[in-house]
Structure formats: C-alpha cells, structure tokens
Write a structure and sequence with these properties.
Blueprint lengths: L1 H14 L3 E7 L2 E7 H6 L3 E2 L1 H8 L15 H22 L4 H23 L2 H12 L7 H10 L1 E5 L1 H30 L2
Antiparallel strand pairs: 1-2, 1-4, 2-3
Helix pairs in contact: 1-4, 1-8, 4-5, 5-8, 6-7
C-alpha cells in the first residue's frame, strides 16, 4: 500500500506537466495549458496561432488576461506534500502516514473537482477579452465577433487521468475511515 501511495502521488505530480486544457477558436487550437500553466496563468500558443499573432506581437497573453488559479496551486502543493510524506512512510513502519497521504490525495481530488466546476480562470479571461473587443467596455460588435469565433475550452485526457489517479488513494482513504468506524462501533 505504501508503494501504491508513492506511485500515485508521483504520477499525479507528473501529470501537472502535461496539457490539461485546449483553447479552441472555430475548431482550431489557439493555446494549451498544462497544470503548472493553469497555476501561473500562462499558456503555450499553437504554432498556427503564433504565426498569426507573430506579426502583431501578441502571441503571449497580456498581463490582464493572465489569471492564476490558487486552487490548482493548492492542489499541487498538497500533492507535493503527499509525495514527500509517502517517501517518509516507506521508511517508517507506522501505517498512519499512509492514511495522511491518502487524505491529502482525497483533498486534492475535491479541490480539483471544485476548480473544474467553477471553471478555469484563463478560459474566463479569454471570454471577457473577446466580449470587450480589446477595449474596456463591451459593445454589440465585439459580442457578435465573440459568438462567431466560437471559443471553446476542451479538457484534455491528461486532466481526466489525473482525476482517475487521485481516485485510487481517495477510495483507500474512505475504506480506511469506514473500517475504523466499524471497529469502534463493534467495540461498544
């Protein structure tokens, strides 16, 4: 079980380096964001978008369009702590460390699900930027252009794989809680 905790936390941390989101405009990829880029608010523009934006010098996101995600940042730190504790759990014979690691993974899963439910900040920033049309105030023309561009944010398989990886220690954590509850209930 201790090696499984180490493997799942290591896999979860590695998945932060893979693309999670694909920003598409009229069906063509404009930019992708890895887990770490979701935290920092950055992104990797596609080659086609970089060529189009290269002449205007706007391949990088403007500072006001960059929106960081503190929730995903907490998830990353949570998993980093879980990884360190899972290494420590290998050296110690006490099984409680494994429960702590599993609990941290369960917390990371819940926070990531919360972020997915409320939406990712860069997607909201791009929508607002299109509706503003580059200016500070919304106008009907920019709203029409935004509707014609059909901006979509596609969640990539690596994000769902991260959720699946975090489900394993979460289920072990819940199972451990149920076992403890049943043992306490049986001793009465």
């Amino acid at each position: 079980m201790k090696k499984l905790n180490l493997g799942t936390t290591l896999a979860a941390l590695c998945l932060f380096f893979l693309p999670w989101l694909d920003f598409q405009c009229s069906g063509k990829s404009m930019m992708t964001q890895s887990g770490l880029q979701v935290i920092s608010g950055g992104g990797t523009p596609s080659a086609e978008f970089e060529d189009l934006a290269g002449s205007s010098g706007k391949s990088k996101m403007d500072e006001e369009e960059r929106r960081m995600s503190p929730i995903v940042g907490i998830v990353f730190l949570d998993l980093l702590l879980a990884f360190v504790l899972s290494i420590a759990a290998l050296r110690v014979a006490d099984h409680r460390w494994s429960s702590v690691v599993q609990g941290l993974c369960a917390g990371a899963l819940l926070l990531l699900a919360l972020q997915m439910a409320i939406g990712f900040p860069a997607a909201e920033a791009m929508q607002e930027s299109l509706h503003r049309g580059g200016g500070r105030e919304a106008n009907p023309e920019s709203a029409l252009v935004a509707a014609m561009l059909d901006l979509k944010v596609k969640r990539l398989p690596s994000l769902y794989l991260l959720l699946a990886v975090l489900v394993i220690p979460t289920l072990m954590f819940v199972n451990g809680l149920i076992d403890r509850f049943m043992k306490k209930g049986g001793n009465r």
